[in-house]
Amino acid sequence: MTLVILGCALPQYEVWWPFFVVLFYILAPIPTIIARRYSEDSPSSSNPCLELAIFITIGFVVSSFALPIVLARAPDGNPVIQPGACYLTLAGNVIVYLTLVGFFVTFEQDDVDYNMW
């Protein structure tokens, strides 16, 4: 989040359009969380609900990377944001989504018994 805020608030950028990726940060995990809650307990078969949720989540993730790139490469040579703000926003995206993946990987392992002693 710090990198996204820096991409918006630094004096040479001063445009808050890249901050809209925060909306994607909030929306991205919601479909997967809902689908896992209502998913079947059979891990061997395919689950269409979970697959649709993953597809929607990937759409949010791709959109959060595409938004700053499109804003930085506006037509007619008049970009909405500076390239530096785009790079800071993209770096913030990588960190946020790696954190979300780490969260899901960590809390997916329900069958691990830590009290083996």
UniProtKB/TrEMBL annotation:
Q: Which residues cross the membrane?
A: 15-34, 54-72, 84-107
**Alphabetical UniProt keywords:** Membrane, Receptor, Transmembrane, Transmembrane helix
Domain of life according to the entry: Eukaryota
Task: Provide the topology term for how it sits in the membrane.
Answer: Multi-pass membrane protein
Major localization listed first in the record, in broad terms: membrane
PANTHER family reported in the protein's UniProt record? LEPTIN RECEPTOR-RELATED, RH04491P
Name of the protein in question: Leptin receptor gene-related protein
Q: Which organism is it from?
A: Polistes dominula
